[in-house]
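Worked Example 4.2. Consider the chain below.
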Amino acid sequence: MTKLKVEGMTCGGCVRSVERTLKAVDADAQVGVSLERGEAELKTKKDAAPFIAALERAGYKASVLP
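Applying the procedure from the previous section yields the following structure tokens:
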């Protein structure tokens, strides 16, 4: 499980945008996004780097949570 801090989400539309962005990197990933916590949880075999890069291209700031 990878947890990402996602900054810049302000509404439900942002949550859907983040979900779509993460699924575009790995269609098989299980993705959960919380607007309240400003976090995304991923179950994937891929490294976090491509997910972070995709989110930043979409206009969000992202980093890995411990």
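The beta strands are 2-7, 30-34, 39-43, 61-64. The radius of gyration is 10 Å. Compare this with Example 4.1 before moving on.
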